[in-house]
């Protein structure tokens, strides 16, 4: 099984920060090779940007002591104009919001691979917009969150 979440935060100008989190767990339930439900759980403390100071700042922004997990509860999978979507509830910082995520699915005999990304506004989840160097460079108002998940089929 392979699970990974990435985020990309772009700052005013051209700077960007990319973080990777491999501390991800979850499941999906299939019916006729279609996702019926599922849940992805991300350990909030697991984001790695290759800079310990910045990683600690991200943990503060995400309020990991109070909300150690980010989750996406999958309620529905549908297709529209040859594009697959997952609809569900994204929970960050204790706040739940309905989210629709465009995805790519590769369905094989023994496993299913799901890949997708979505832009999320910091303010929707009561997260302070990050800055670099104090107040020198402020991030744009949203963050791109993407992931790739490979689940082994059982039964």
Q: Tell me the β content.
A: over 45%
Largest sheet strand order: 2-1-11-8-7-6-5-4-3
Beginning-to-end CA distance, first to last residue: 16 Å
Assembly context of the chains: single chain
Helical stretch count? Answer: 1
Shape: globular
Radius of gyration: 16 Å
Could you give a short account of the major beta sheet? 9 strands, antiparallel
Structural class: mainly beta
- The helical percent reads under 10%
Low-confidence stretches: none
The total strand number stands at 11
Architecture overview:
The chain is mainly β and 155 residues long. The chain contains 1 helix and 11 strands. The protein has one helix at residues 52-61, and strands at 2-10, 16-21, 24-31, 34-43, 69-80, 83-92, 95-107, 111-121, 131-132, 137-138, 142-152. Strands 2-1-11-8-7-6-5-4-3 form a 9-stranded antiparallel sheet, with no helix packed on it. It has a two-stranded antiparallel ribbon with strand order 9-10. Strand 9 and strand 10 form a beta hairpin. The protein is globular, with a radius of gyration of 16 Å. The model has no long low-confidence stretch (mean pLDDT 85).
Draw up the topology in text.
Layout: E1 2-10, E2 16-21, E3 24-31, E4 34-43, H1 52-61, E5 69-80, E6 83-92, E7 95-107, E8 111-121, E9 131-132, E10 137-138, E11 142-152
Antiparallel strand pairs: 1-2, 1-11, 3-4, 4-5, 5-6, 6-7, 7-8, 8-11, 9-10
């Amino acid at each position: 099984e392979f699970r990974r979440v990435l985020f990309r935060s772009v700052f005013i100008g051209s700077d960007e920060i990319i973080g990777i989190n491999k501390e991800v767990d979850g499941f999906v339930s299939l019916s006729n090779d279609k996702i019926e439900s599922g849940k992805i759980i991300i350990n909030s403390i697991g984001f790695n940007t290759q800079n310990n100071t910045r990683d600690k700042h991200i943990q503060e922004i995400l309020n990991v002591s109070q909300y150690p997990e980010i989750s996406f509860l999958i309620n529905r999978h549908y297709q529209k104009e040859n594009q697959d979507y997952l609809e569900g509830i994204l929970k960050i910082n204790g706040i739940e919001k309905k989210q629709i995520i465009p995805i790519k699915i590769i369905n094989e005999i023994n496993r299913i691979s799901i890949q997708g990304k979505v832009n999320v506004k910091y303010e929707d989840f009561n997260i302070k917009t990050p800055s670099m160097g104090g107040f020198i460079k402020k991030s744009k108002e949203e963050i791109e969150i993407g992931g790739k998940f490979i689940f082994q089929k059982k039964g």
